[in-house]
């Protein structure tokens, strides 16, 4: 499947022995943030991008690494990529203003499957299990040194095209001048829609669990509601006593499978709801514990009920779904699998040809 990407590469600092401080972790978190005020939030609202990633990686021992920002572009984003680059540098200029007074909360990671590769690194043996997932020291001087490498005259710009050759050109002088101008903009003249992440309301205030002695552990969930409207099951954790919970809400209706058109519209609706919740749910994902679930569930239900479909986001989501259907049409194994599922489906199902044909006729209004 073809792709449209914008990559900005910057020669970075050598972090090989900075395993205790990891300055790139702070920088990549802020640049890759997807909440309100972020680069991704701004370019998504313009209909220019579907995703953004940022991070540093090593080249070889003893040499500086590379910091890379990768943007997955829409068709409009490809046409407006210079403006995306010009937005990137004012946001970078925001970061030194923070003075990095506060550490960012990072989620715990499972490194067991990666121990074999971690052993080859320069980590102290006592840190092999926690690896690079734990920030042990806070070094603002190293963060500032790393930030100093991310500037217009220290970057390489590259666009990826599927099926075409790479080409190395000098960055146009007018674009370079615009980037330098954007990087040097004063705080008063910065774009007001760009700002640093706000307080994450999903980070738990009291993560401790009050353990209660149980005479007998419950083996199965308990049905607390079962009527014509809803069936609700609930089971409290009485084994591990950790501050973690899962809420699974399944909405069922026969209308989804009444026709291929309904099926496509239902898929579009769910994708648009997920897209509308992207900035809001990003904080919940960062919090890691899926904490304060009533707050998140209330926002999801409210968004489903009051969904205001933005024209740009509708076209972007539709375009993404169209590309997915086209990719399946070009993959013979998917066609065989779809046809087999269609034959064996207990309910009326649809093959991708039917869905793609219906999708082309669905409009914003």
TrEMBL record:
Domain Peptidase M16 middle/third: 100-293
Superkingdom of origin: Eukaryota
Family matches, as Pfam families: Peptidase_M16_C, Peptidase_M16_M
InterPro entries linked to this entry: Metalloenz_LuxS/M16, Peptidase_M16, Peptidase_M16_C, Peptidase_M16_M
UniProt xrefs under SUPFAM superfamilies: LuxS/MPP-like metallohydrolase
MF (Gene Ontology): metal ion binding; metalloendopeptidase activity
Cellular component annotations (GO), alphabetically ordered: cytosol; mitochondrion
Record keywords: Metal-binding
Biological process terms in GO annotation: peptide catabolic process; proteolysis involved in protein catabolic process
Domain Peptidase M16 C-terminal, residue spans: 22-94
Annotated protein name in UniProt: Insulysin
Organism per entry: Fusarium oxysporum
Species lineage: Eukaryota, Fungi, Dikarya, Ascomycota, Pezizomycotina
